[in-house]
Amino acid sequence: MEAFPVIDMEKLTGKERSPTMEKINDACENWGFFELMNHGISHELMDTVERLTKEHYKKCMEQRFKEMVATKGLEALQSEIDDLDWESTFFLRHLPVSNISEIPDLEQDHRKAMKEFAEKLEKLAEQLLDLLCENLGLEKGYLKKAFSGSKGPTFGTKVSNYPPCPQPELIKGLRAHTDAGGIILLFQDNKVSGLQLLKEGEWIDVPPMKHAIVINIGDQLEVITNGKYKSVMHRVIAQTDGNRMSIASFYNPGSEAVIYPAPALVDKEEDQQKQVYPKFVFEDYMKLYAGLKFQAKEPRFEAMKAMESAVKLGPISTI
């Protein structure tokens, strides 16, 4: 199988722009994932975020996780568990309103670093969306506007640790799923692996790379591109040694944004394939996803299609 796609963003400013854009397009069409190098976020900031996140886990979350494992009897599993994940997490909201100041147990320097990191990731997400617009032949700004609705996009971060697991064959770090939202930007541990994606029936490792940002396509981009770009099933395999850090940031549509295939892409299709994806309000999709996250995405799309007659569409302006 071909090598996992790695994109050097510095090449977008020189004579290698065209093949680099093609590499991004191929990754979106055929992998649903790629890794970014030279993405403009300083290594110093990333190192600070990693250090503070790992310190926070040790100080504030490790003991809680051990107590949860003991309470649920997970140390002595006899059979496979399919309704629980071997992870320790907390969530940060950035847009529309930040909750970083409200998260308990975070040191002030950790809050500051996460806030700065989120601001950089937000800009990177919007830059990537415009690169996708260029590859898709959409107006610059179309995808950002499609996500914005009337109140702007939503943006948040899931901070996870995957501690050493005595029986990784019986419990996943995170069960297989596609991501519900738009575009996902992941800062993952560069020493402890575990993230895998499903490609052509095989689970493939997403290689840990120092100072890289892993990008993956969410369900909403699959809908807006009418299936040209696809969200992909992925999972985290628990490891017997090493604690894996994962900081996944989700640049998603606003809750009231109406999501539907871009007309410019539908018009390019052959008549029989003109529009295969539904129109829906993002919040409605998320309510459905909450109960069906670890199942196939296709029934979710079908369920939304059944509801779409109730959705009123407004034009997306890119001015």
Automatic annotation (TrEMBL):
Catalytic activity: 1-aminocyclopropane-1-carboxylate + L-ascorbate + O2 = ethene + L-dehydroascorbate + hydrogen cyanide + CO2 + 2 H2O
Stretches that traverse the bilayer: none
EC assignment: 1.14.17.4
Record flagged with keyword Coiled coil: yes
Positions of the Fe2OG dioxygenase domain: 153-253
Listed cofactors: Fe cation
Keyword set, alphabetical order: Coiled coil, Ethylene biosynthesis, Iron, Metal-binding, Oxidoreductase, Vitamin C
A GO molecular-function descriptor: 1-aminocyclopropane-1-carboxylate oxidase activity
Any single GO BP term: cellular response to fatty acid
Coiled coil (UniProt feature): 107-134
Family per similarity comment: Belongs to the iron/ascorbate-dependent oxidoreductase family.
PANTHER family: OXOGLUTARATE/IRON-DEPENDENT DIOXYGENASE
Protein name, entry field: 1-aminocyclopropane-1-carboxylate oxidase
Source species: Actinidia chinensis var. chinensis (Chinese soft-hair kiwi)
